[in-house]
Amino acid sequence: MESTMKEMRDGASVLDFDSKSTVEGGVEDVYGEDRATEDQLVTPWTISVASGYCLLRDPRHNKGLAFTEKERDAHYLRGLLPPAVISQQLQEKKLMNSIRQYEVPLQKYVAMMELEERNERLFYKLLIDNVEELLPVVYTPTVGEACQKYGSIFRRPQGLYISLKEKGKILEVLKNWPERSIQVIVVTDGERILGLGDLGCQGMGIPVGKLALYTALGGIRPSACLPITVDVGTNNEQLLKDEFYIGLRQRRATGQEYAELLDEFMSAVKQNYGEKVLIQFEDFANHNAFELLAKYGTTHLVFNDDIQGTASVVLAGVVAALKLIGGTLAEHRFLFLGAGEAGTGIAELIALEISKQTKAPVEETRKKICLVDSKGLIVSSRKDSLQHFKKPWAHEHEPVNNLLDAVKVIKPTILIGSSGVGRTFTKEVIEAMASFNEVVFQALLWLIRKFNFCSLFKRMF
């Protein structure tokens, strides 16, 4: 094996295994140093050198016109490429010019996905060098439309699809994936894709897009990432009637059937990839998201981005804001608009942090936090009708029907919005907050002066 690797290092392969060098022909190792994967097994390709026609159709190793004269001879590429040798930098310039010609974001998305399917390294080069411009293309908001139309724009499968048809043989399906050293899995069942609802199998665009960002922004190599969609059907009638729909044409499985499939999946993942593989639950419906996190949180390395990822970012923002408005977390009163995965997840993390700082039980620190959902303030009189994840936030209080009245009654010092309904922080709500929060009012004035937020407030109101 050592001699094979040495030969490949000496030019018998288009790959260069020195993570700090560049591939011959000036193609950069755009992923950067990846300490997390450097000790992992290399891909099966590295022990049988791909060449010729097959090499040009392998997106992991294809460099297009960036193959040098020497590489074209070594890998039987003569005649399969035009004679010009073009650097990766020039390829990037050409493709960015092409992408900028599109006026419709979905066209840009399709162009980027097609690039990833033929030249993965160049795809990430573009994304890393133009992240502010391309991030909204490969992920939100464009990925939402892409998921809605996924069947129509589908060209080539990305990621791994596990459906009810594979029940009893999920481990075999996982072994069909060519990479063995998987470290991060993003999995969805497509039931709550962004704010768009049940998109079934077409939710695959979310795990694919999320992991593309983990590579571009986090430096995790694509070979260590695995996007997965668990297809248990869909309740979206429009998709069930769509002739281009790519998933199971049946109503969603629930209850024991759903639980057994997910349990088999989680066991198979651990068996195939080990207990250190990170499993991210993405865009599961509320009723499943909390249950899966609670069920597998002690047996697998899991997290839910909607519940925990969002919460960590918001808590960081609140802690930073305290430098401006003063006080500790425990000295503030919190009011949330929205009591879904994000809202309750943020609230719980804030309560845990207050508990950690004050040594008070988390049951006590939760009393500093109130939540408003579509039916008004969450109070104890509603407890019997509440979903289980809302019940810890049902405090003893008179019913309040809307956000404005809740602000006036609760008098929060920190107001957090986590609802998908827009234009709810109205002028009246802001004025009510400012009426008993002089510091908040002064902070708003400071933000307006420093960052010219006037146009933002005009759009809000």
From TrEMBL:
* Organism taxonomic ancestry: Eukaryota, Viridiplantae, Streptophyta, Embryophyta, Tracheophyta
Top-level taxon:
Eukaryota
Instruction: Provide the GO MF annotations for this entry.
Output: malic enzyme activity; metal ion binding; NAD binding; oxidoreductase activity, acting on the CH-OH group of donors, NAD or NADP as acceptor
Q: Is RNA-binding tagged as a keyword? A: no
| Claim: GTP-binding is one of the keywords in the record | no
Which residues does the annotation say bind (S)-malate? R192
* Pfam families hit by this protein: malic, Malic_M
Residues noted as binding a divalent metal cation in the record, renumbered to the chain: E282, D283, D306
Q: Which GO terms fall under biological process for this protein? A: malate metabolic process
Q: Where is the active site?
A: Y139, K210
Show where the Malic enzyme N-terminal domain sits.
116-297
Q: What is this protein called?
A: Malic enzyme
- Cofactor(s) required for function per UniProt: Mg(2+); Mn(2+)
Q: Cite the cofactor comment.
A: Divalent metal cations. Prefers magnesium or manganese.
Family label: Belongs to the malic enzymes family.
- Kindly give the InterPro entries that the UniProt entry links to this protein: Aminoacid_DH-like_N_sf (IPR046346), Malic_enzyme_CS (IPR015884), Malic_N_dom (IPR012301), Malic_N_dom_sf (IPR037062), Malic_NAD-bd (IPR012302), Malic_OxRdtase (IPR001891), NAD(P)-bd_dom_sf (IPR036291)
Query: Residues in domain Malic enzyme NAD-binding?
Result: 307-460
Q: Which SMART domains match?
A: malic (SM01274), Malic_M (SM00919)
